[in-house]
Design brief:
Layout: H1 2-7, H2 10-16, E1 21-27, E2 32-35, H3 37-43, H4 60-66, E3 70-77, E4 82-93, E5 96-108, H5 112-117, H6 122-127, H7 131-134, H8 147-160, E6 166-169, H9 176-186, E7 194-198, H10 204-212, H11 230-233, E8 238-242, H12 249-261, E9 263-264, E10 273-274, E11 278-283, H13 287-292, H14 298-304, E12 307-310, H15 318-333, E13 341-342, H16 344-352, H17 358-375, E14 380-381, H18 388-391, H19 411-429, H20 434-441, H21 445-455
Parallel strand pairs: 6-11, 6-12, 7-8, 8-11, 13-14
Antiparallel strand pairs: 1-2, 1-5, 3-4, 4-5, 9-10
Helix pairs in contact: 8-9, 15-17
Length: 459
Amino acid sequence: MIRNFINSNQLLLNIFDQIFHTVIIVDSNARMVYTNYMAEQIIHKKMVGRKVGEIEPSKFLDVLREGKRINNHRHLIESAGLELVTMYLPIMHSDTIIGAIGVGRLIPADRMYDFLLQNSGLKRKVHNKELDKALPEPFHNLIGQDTLYVRALVKGAAAAGSDANVLLLGESGVGKEVFSRAIHISSNRNKNNFVVVNCSAIPENLLESELFGYEPGAFTGASTRGRFGKLEAAHQGTLFLDEIGDMPVHLQAKLLRVIQFKSFERLGGNKTIKVDTRIIAATNRNLWQMGTEGKFRSDLFYRLNVFPINIPPLRERKKDIIPLANLFLSRLLSNTQKNIEFSDYTVEKFLAYKWPGNIRELENAVEHAFVMANTEDAPRILPRHLPENLREANVINKESFIDITDNAGTLSEIVEKFEANVIRHTLKECNFNKAKVSRKLGISNGCLFYRLNKYGIDS
């Protein structure tokens, strides 16, 4: 009887395949007879023909037994990192329950971080700063203790356990490609290719052939042997589409068909090529807003946005700036016999700067400073070694002056502490240029050097 229902509602089922909801239909024995595209993407198991309890917990049995509608049943699909809010309805024929339908609304799992923290000892490991033990090994190189970034790492690890499409959201330079590689290497596709396509770096007239390949003679200048595209190269692997928001709309339609039907034709060809490719897309743009403006296909956005992960900008990850800077410096030092470190004031400059270019800018700044310090054979990287925009970062120095009420001692001792703090602050203001410090304080160079030695000030 339920088969008749399925066969007589093909138009409705076609609509189900286009929506951003999971749809599952079961017969009276709780055996699945239909699952839509989104359900297959999220759960990623062979579902039709199996009983619902074998796949995911649900309320289908209650609906089949009692014949009552159940609203807003919530549960987390841990493997996909998503929360599912499902409505269950009985399917009736002549007062007889012949099956049931469940329609689930997907919610990106902001709770997934907290959920995973409660499981497998992850909470204790995070608390004890043993996050590496809780995450797949490829994520160990992604340095971060900031809460927002740790959330992204946990979601990335969850994404690696699923074949669902992933959308990485974040500003330029936050490390979206490195993040996507970690997901790929941690997944069961890691024996196959990880293929990168930057949609903004390839001219529009070449992007189509780059993605889909072409047959011999497909266009002027085409190779006589033809060429397979990135989609084929990523078969059974992962295709990383960077700057997906810059993809032309007509190519978005072709990509949507690939996601829907797992097949495509090369340019100039008519042979259908089947592919099994996991897509990770990345953008620094608001795709939803672009969809409302007609600049990005909303249906493609929903297909890509199955598993969104926000990667925070570096300015929101204050605790990670210095560990990252030290990592980049250690890499530069690995091929030398030198031991260079950052001065305290350089560290303050790093923390005061806003880092509009994020991790990429930090890495470049460290390399610039290393080269400049190396030319002077300096043991420390000082503010004068930094790029100009970083040198000009305003540092709020809370130790410029002392609070007399907090300092015990004689008047002479208090004055000396005050004088030492003034000299330290002026040194930093003048980027440790002692001639400038002397002029600003109105003292001779000899007097300044005497006080630097007297107070043990590192200059």
